[in-house]
Design brief:
Layout lengths: L4 E3 L2 E3 L3 E3 L8 H8 L24 E4 L2 E4 L8 H14 L6 E4 L4 H12 L6 E5 L15 H14 L4 E5 L5 H11 L6 E4 L3 E5 L1 E2 L4 E2 L7 E6 L3 H14 L5 E5 L5 H9 L2 E6 L1 H6 L3 H16 L16
Parallel strand pairs: 3-15, 6-7, 7-8, 8-9, 9-14, 14-15
Antiparallel strand pairs: 1-2, 4-5, 5-13, 10-13, 11-12
Helix pairs in contact: 3-4, 4-5, 5-6, 7-9
Bound molecules: the ligand C=Cc1c(C(=O)O)[nH]c(=O)[nH]c1=O.
Length: about 300
């Protein structure tokens, strides 16, 4: 029984990995993912220059998930490029993901030019969905801008590249976005990022739980799972087969990972639960997923990927 997968024509021994932003801020955290059962890692979204991010407390977990308004704290793209360059030499049989975000088209181009000029042989994940930079909208909700960015991106960048999208909540939006995305040679679409601008409060103290943005932040965990599964399946149904799906959102058990794959995911990313449990979670999730596969008579992910049954 194998949980291996292929994405962008690249083989991964395990379909489980971290979600950008969780356990991937610096070399110390990335080493822990690298030394876990995860199939690979994605870095914290890298920007042109390092960022300290928003004021703390900026992350809060509940028994149902999490809220965050980190504000894109990161070491800057070059730090992650240096780390990956070192890992490509030290552990050459794995392929790594670099998450990036520019604050405008020029920055996106600059980041991609930097990657293109480097020895990077991995996969780029262009984040179009950060909800926590005050004054900056989530690009994924501006369809014209998404199309403009992707047009330029594929004029300047030639390596495997996918995008991280926010969750959509309207069938027509799935249709409109899929029509746009099907024009481009995307390696994958990663659905979903957190549900932007939720609010978790402490009713005892009658206060919000995080400091930035009057307590508003991205929602992850159990709260997110039904929305994540719907976005994974909606895009799986609509996108051309060459654009694979990475499923992110609400995965804390082998069953959750199984459901994302049943909806069409080729790779699954773990955020909130990884933050709570640490990198040993990948050993547990892999074992649980294999047990489910065994019980159902499946030996590979292709036996059930995308084979969700309807009642109609
Ligand atoms: C990259 C910024 C993001 C952040 C953040 O750094 O605040 N939080 C999220 O839930 N999703 C993001 O994409």
């Amino acid at each position: 029984i194998s949980t291996k997968t292929t994405l962008a024509g690249i083989h991964f021994d395990n379909c489980l990995m971290n979600a950008a932003g969780v356990y991937c801020y610096d070399a110390s955290e990335l080493n822990q993912i690298q030394n876990s059962m995860a199939g690979t890692f994605v870095t914290k979204t890298g920007t042109v220059t390092p960022r300290t991010g928003n004021q703390v407390p900026r992350y809060r977990a509940t028994h149902l998930g999490s809220i965050n308004s980190m504000g894109l704290p990161n070491k800057g793209l070059q730090y992650y490029m240096d780390y990956i360059s070192q890992q490509q030499k030290a552990v050459p049989h794995k392929t790594y993901f670099q998450s990036i975000a520019g604050f405008n088209l020029a920055e996106d181009e600059y980041l991609l030019a930097q990657i293109q000029a480097s020895d990077f042989t991995g996969v780029v994940e262009l984040n179009l969905s950060c909800p926590n930079v005050p004054g900056k909208p989530q690009i994924g909700y501006d369809f014209e801008t998404v199309e403009k960015i992707l047009t330029r991106v594929f004029e300047v960048y030639r390596g495997p590249l996918g995008i991280k999208l926010p969750p959509y909540f309207d069938i027509v939006h799935f249709d409109q976005m899929a029509t746009i995305l099907n024009q481009f040679p995307l390696a994958f679409v990663n659905s979903v990022n957190s549900i932007g601008n939720g609010l978790i409060i402490d009713s005892l103290s009658e206060r919000v739980t995080i400091k930035p943005k009057h307590g508003f932040g991205g929602i992850g965990g159990d709260y997110l799972k039904p929305t994540a599964l719907a976005n994974v399946h909606a895009f799986y149904q609509r996108l051309k087969p060459s654009i694979q799906i990475i499923g992110t959102g609400g995965i804390k058990s082998g069953q959750d990972a199984f459901e994302h794959i049943l909806c069409g995911a080729s790779m699954v990313q773990v955020g909130t639960a990884l933050h709570a449990e640490g990198p040993q979670i990948f050993a547990r999730l892999t074992a649980e997923l294999k047990t489910i596969m065994y019980q159902k008579g499946y030996t590979t992910l292709t036996d059930f990927r995308g084979k969700l049954n309807y009642l109609d």
